[in-house]
Amino acid sequence: MAALLAAGSSAAEAAAGRAAAAAVAVAPPRPVMLILVGIPGAGKSTFAQSLVQRSRAPGSSTGMRWVSVNQDTAAKGGGRGSREQCIGAAAAALTAGASVVVDRHRGDQVILHVDDDLVAIRDKYPKARSHLLVISREEDLDSVSHLAPRHLPLLGRMRALALDLVRREQQRRQDQQQQQEQQQQQQEQQQEHEQEQQGHEQRREQAQEAAGAETEPAPIPSGWALGFHSVPSLLRLHLHVISTDMDSPALKNKKHWNSFCTPFFLPIDAAMRQLEGDGRVAVDAEAAEALLKGPLRCNRCGAAATNMPALKAHISACAAPLP
């Protein structure tokens, strides 16, 4: 994992770029996440300037974006870029003073939150209607098996941020539902549009004020799960913040389903209890992998299914409540 670099003098930046390129060149072929946290200067390279433009694009409340350096973004003149072009693009961006994420899978992502310890984004391939990630920025902390008692405050912060994201996501859904209702009403009663919009804005402001007034961490709401994969597929410890409807086109196979709907998925509260009681989070990798290959079962009523199409058909009609 390449370290996040701060901008310094031009000579220092150039040296950092060469060092970063060398580090990427010898890195093992594993998925890697690096984070664009800011760009002090635009630099001279076209690629670095494009990163600056992305970081200032509208739609990001923080003014920063998740960026991927891959064969597509590093390509010149169309087609797909070579490994050397990818390395060169990352080095050029670092030379320009950027901290860049090399991630072969996730592409551009708006950063929902960033601070010295954590970054939050939406999962690029969500496995439910809402699926977000809270990512630790601590070096060499890649899975729950690496956790120690000293990480309990970090987990507490990850949990608190996740709950805040859940509240924001619930508000976003409420706004969308209200907008849909308003559009339907506009078709029937166009003359009431202005009054309806005013009421919508007032309700939104009241909900935001109520959320901001909370000082104690709330329990995890029904219909949501906060947890880790026992054996993660990506580097850097990341907490999944996911709605339990499990309704998404990206949810395609048994491994996807069982990674969230079996004990392979370790709730954050259980991980914190293990750390407090045992001083570590024990992971049996073989048993965890076996869970991924186990039978498919509805996460609401426990009914078995022979394949994913059958399971999706069942959950679309299942009357049992969300876990």
Secondary-structure map:
Layout: H1 10-26, H2 46-55, E1 65-66, H3 83-95, E2 109-114, E3 118-122, E4 131-136, H4 152-188, H5 193-212, E5 224-229, E6 238-243, H6 254-261, E7 265-267, H7 268-278, H8 285-292, E8 296-297, E9 304-305, H9 308-317
Antiparallel strand pairs: 1-2, 2-3, 3-4, 4-6, 5-6, 5-7, 8-9
Commentary on this structure:
The chain has 323 residues and is of the alpha+beta class. The chain has 2 domains: 71 residues, Rossmann fold, CATH 3.40.50; 167 residues, 2-Layer Sandwich (HIT family, subunit A), CATH 3.30.428. The protein contains 9 helices and 9 strands. The strands form 2 sheets. A 7-stranded antiparallel beta sheet has the order 1-2-3-4-6-5-7. Strands 8-9 form a two-stranded antiparallel ribbon. The chain starts with 9 loop residues before the first helix and ends in a 6-residue tail after the last helix.
Using brief descriptors, characterize the structure shown.
323 residues; alpha+beta; HIT family, subunit A; 9 helices; 9 strands; 41% helix; 12% strand; globular; disordered N terminus; double-stranded RNA binding
Would you summarize the structure shown here?
The protein has 323 residues and is α+β, with helices and mostly antiparallel strands.
